[in-house]
Amino acid sequence: MGQNRSVAVVGAGQTGVSAAVGFLNAGFDVTLFSDRDRVTLRNRGPATGTAVTFAEAQAAERELGLDDYVGRAPRVTGQSTRMFTGAGTERQDVLDFDVDYDGFQAVGVDTRLKVDERIGEFLVGGGRFVVTVVDADVLDDIASAHDLTLVATGRAGLSELFAVDRSRTVYDRPQRRLLMLTVTGLGHGTDVFAHRGLAGGEHNTFAIDTEQGELWWGPYLHKDAGPSWSFLGFAKPGSDWERRFGTAHDVASAHRVVTEVHRDYVEWDLPEIASTTLIPGDPHAWLRGSVTPTVRHAVGVTASGHPVLALGDTAISYDPIGAQGAQGGLIQAAQLVAAARGHAGPFDQNWLHDRFEHFWTTRGAAAVLVTRLFLGDPDFVQYGQLFFPAAAASPRFGAALFGLLSDPKPLLGIGSRAAARHYVAEKAGESADTLLARVPAANFRYSSYRRQESARTSVA
Ligand SMILES: Cc1cc2nc3c(=O)[nH]c(=O)nc-3n(C[C@H](O)[C@H](O)[C@H](O)COP(=O)(O)OP(=O)(O)OC[C@H]3O[C@@H](n4cnc5c(N)ncnc54)[C@H](O)[C@@H]3O)c2cc1C
């Protein structure tokens, strides 16, 4: 069906390149426009985010004819979570649980590696890669010359073409200050983070300080160093962590800030963190910033009246705490390729509008909800106060809670505390009251990790 129909994709981030390869594999004639050349995309800037994917997004990658990296990236089979309040002698341990995901693995892959490999596949498959900065005038020309034009330029580039949808946008400012860092020197064996659970270095870790924010570590595939670890810090506005994150100005100072925050707040994990080292040759292995979660009207019209569709972060940007941005872009791309393949008519405004509405109802709206749940949004705090203790009491419910990062749709059906309790009971196989009556008391074990013990790196 794709033969002789042309597609332009603007922006060669993870979403744009994935869509471009997917359209090419579906038989379309595809041109990918990028403001940066391939070497610059790979080596002269940071990854856009950690971009962990779970089952649904990995399935979308496979549908597009892409590698999902399961088996290449260090495997991640679950999540360890510790919640506490206060620091030092004032600290109170609130919750401590470690759950396995239900039948899938997560993978964290350097977006620069994915982009570079997918551009390679795109070129081998006969796609055209054009390096140019696309402004509104150039976009108008591109849209007039192609049957379908997609804009995947991230949160900044060209996004003004797509007005903010106030009815779907909840926040008017960032909810967290972010610090991202990729490091090496720590393996992925069971001796790493062994004090948090039997799976050790095969589980992501969360340290949730109810006042300061969240610290997350996850196994990662770095573009050059290979198996490594990614850190994400989420600092609440006005917190000490926010002030500290603000002092990071390069990869070395970011590493120092991360180590000191663990020394002062999360000392039970410190031996692992103190073992980490910088990745030689990658001064861009860090990122500092913030995201105002925003949903846009995804269909725009160029100066001469050509409709274009926003993809990925250009359409919806999320706070990364719910790991929805990269995943949503891949799912949106896969839905679009599948629909275009079976569509014989023009890719007009109505068709584009229907595609985005389909994505919104099947993924986007729920992805916004799961992000709000993990942010502790006041509208969701009553669910969070139920879900996190329930996860500590029931591994089955814990798996369901973190399964929402893969498929957040169940949240669409939870509009009251009664519905939330019903969801807990359904997933746990026992009533919420029974569960909540046996939430184990948290008492954090400390790491006794010694660096030389960890020679192993497990890859699926
Ligand atoms: C700290 C952090 C952690 C994250 N963790 C996760 C996670 O665990 N899981 C998850 O799913 N998501 C995560 N995300 C979100 C995820 O990283 C992004 O949603 C995703 O990478 C966005 O990809 P994109 O291709 O849509 O946009 P981008 O990666 O921003 O790509 C846009 C591309 O367009 C190019 N461009 C811009 N303007 C122009 C122009 N005018 N002309 C031509 N080209 C242009 C840019 O140079 C860039 O190459 C995280 C984000 C952050 C910040």
From TrEMBL:
It comes from the Bacteria. Gene3D superfamilies: FAD/NAD(P)-binding domain. InterPro entries: FAD/NAD-bd_sf, StyA_sbd. Pfam families: Smoa_sbd. Residues 154-266 form the Styrene monooxygenase StyA putative substrate binding domain. This is Cadherin repeat domain-containing protein. It comes from Mycobacterium yunnanensis.
